[in-house]
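re: ur question from the group chat, yeah i did fold both. here u go
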Amino acid sequence: MTISPYLREGARVGLRPFRLADGPEFAARAHESRELHHPWLFPPVTVEEYEPYATRLIGDGARAGFLVCERETGAIAGFVNVNNIVHGAFRCGALGYGAFAHAAGRGLLREALGLVLAQAFAPSGEGGLGLHRLEANIQPGNTASIALVRGAGFRLEGFSPDFLHVDGAWRDHERWALTADMVAGAFA
């Protein structure tokens, strides 16, 4: 019997935690994807930048990072992070994600997002994050990102002017959210 390297698997992708050893591949993929990501996203493009980024995702209980890997090859296709995790009565986290250029437009991140939702809403006693709510804050012009969350069932909850400092300026964002009861049974 082979033990899977993935926390969750779909038909074409698997989710696994970040590792420091992934630095060279992650940085190379991010460097190749700079044009795709600009002006929305700036993942680390060098191993030196990757190390503190991954260390925060690995060792900080207020974050969970997932590498999206193509099951057939194991190649890193993208990433989905759950940031600002708050437990207690709130049980919420904020999504950050990106596909790499070689994987963009193939539906891999859409599949991975479904796996992350299952992981996020699964009870912590079953290895999940035990969250009730996930939020995604997206710049209005980022139509691909809006289509991704809309397709996953997120609802638009509002608009926040000057919400996040991105690419040297304070940017407006739409606030999208999904709660566990909105997807009840979808990941059972």
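okk and heres the other one u asked abt
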Amino acid sequence: MFHLVTGLPWLVVLVRFILPLPWPWTLKALLALVLLIASQYHYVSRLSSGSVFAPEFPRPLVIAFNVLFGAIVLLAMFQIALDAVSLLVMVFTGAFPLLAPEVRYAAGLAAIALSSFGVNRAIIVPPLKDIEIVIPGLASAFDGYRIVQLTDLHISRLFPAVWSQAMVAKTNTLEADLIVITGDFIDGSLEHRRADIEPLRGLSARDGVYAISGNHEYFFDAHAFLQHFAAMDMLLLSNSHAVIERGTAKLVVAGVPDRSAGRNGFAAPDLHAALDGRPDEAPVILLDHQPMQARQAAEAGVALQLSGHTHGGMIRGMDRLLARANNGFVSGHYQVGSMQLYVNNGTALWPGFALRLGRPAELTRITLRQAA
């Protein structure tokens, strides 16, 4: 069913864009075939690795598939918009207008150009995004405390070791007090990703690296991955917390596993357990991969929740659809009751649809500030 759904944009392009072109049938058939194969990118990924989430073929081919798949989706949207305008014209003229070939050429070129630009923006090592967040009750010893949030790394054939190494090197220049990774480390098996994730061992911060699981960990051998990350000197928070101290001042960092953990034989997220025994006077920073439970975290007394998962919506406009699936939270800073929520656009994103238009990736440095 999934592969039939991804074929629907291709069908729109075939019927409303390719067939009306004034080209020889052989050229139209060739274009239709190329785009049909591109529309089944996820099926090809499944053939290569057994999973739609992990293409295991050369990176240039993964990039090409993403560019073409994105172009199909965009072109289908453009064609639907053109047909909607044509229907409106028909209401007033009584005839459905025939589009000049030049209009179709312009739409096709725009789709491939936008898709190419969007894929390029998706696969770069992201630029730094600096934000400050005021935390009520924060001790003066933690005023100016710097947290670098990495999330949705999706290390894969699209984001291989060379990308990981560059991202780690850039992160380490930020001189963070703490690095947090809020899930979705990988796409693929540990056997395939071992070399690609190795650069993460080089992440360095004064108070270490804390991490939680994301939903993509559970698409593969989560147990092996979580053990491997723990052996890389990351503190994995699973319904638990850690206390960071500066003299007598304290800051709590808590973490819960992804919501899909319970469906895969692991402990389900339990915020009560994660906060149990924490120092009452210390502000709590919660790491939760998905932002949809933010209101429950606010009710539990969390000061700041850091999440990812949504990739910021990837495309401006489409982010509204993803917001509906995440209780309204999709990108950036939110005030949720007395708690603040930051939803990170992601350091990278899923290689199955690597396209960013108006929702850039980010390497996020969060500076904590005392309330006045």
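fwiw on the second one: Residues 225 and 362 are 24 Å apart (CA to CA). The two ends are 55 Å apart (CA to CA). idk if thats what u expected
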